[in-house]
UniProtKB/TrEMBL annotation:
This is Sulfhydryl oxidase. GO terms for cellular component: mitochondrial intermembrane space. It is an enzyme of class 1 (oxidoreductase). Pfam families: Evr1_Alr (PF04777).
Amino acid sequence: MSNETPDQGVTFKSLLFNENGKFCLPCTLYKSFQYISGTTGKSVTSPAPIQEETISKQSTALSTLPSSDLIPGSRTYVKEDPPDVNKLGSASWTFLHAVAAKYPEKPTPFQQEEMSDFLNIFSHVYPCFWCAKDFEKYIKENAPNVKSQEELSIWMCQAHNKVNKKLGKAQFNCDFWKARWKDGWDEQ
Ligand SMILES: Cc1cc2nc3c(=O)[nH]c(=O)nc-3n(C[C@H](O)[C@H](O)[C@H](O)COP(=O)(O)OP(=O)(O)OC[C@H]3O[C@@H](n4cnc5c(N)ncnc54)[C@H](O)[C@@H]3O)c2cc1C
């Protein structure tokens, strides 16, 4: 059993991951326990080691779903349907804007080439045929601006706005790309 320390500042609703990016069950249950027991916000830097039995009891307490809603054999995974075009789109834009927001401010020629390649390949494999076709066309006519983080993020915003326009949705003000996808709104 792992004695990993929970991350600070993550809400009880989140799944917690350790520094290697792996799901941390003890951390998640510990945080949930804190919420349930009203101890959220108290020190979480040195939690007592969590015993198997405790985790099992907490899992049972947390599981309020009928078992028919869960994947057979699992106490964790709900039977979710495959994503439709909207769910896929929203998740994909989140990924693409986040990638752009983490792109280096001064990328090397190699990083620029990699990013161009990635976006080209993305437009070929995106699992919505007509979305992919249009995105591929957009990329051909508007080569991704991979010179810097700022330029790539604005390019991404404009590419997204092109789709928004096609779908009759409002245009997003690209002046706010950084607040939306990198820094948050605290400083606005
Ligand atoms: C490459 C690609 C092509 C697509 N093509 C199609 C298509 O042809 N037909 C179709 O029906 N759907 C398409 N989609 C899906 C579509 O764009 C939406 O994702 C989907 O309609 C769900 O919309 P949503 O309201 O959840 O918000 P989304 O458009 O998914 O946006 C998610 C969030 O991003 C932020 N945001 C919105 N616009 C911008 C912007 N310009 N810049 C930065 N942030 C922004 C907002 O905070 C918004 O809440 C495509 C998705 C992708 C990734």
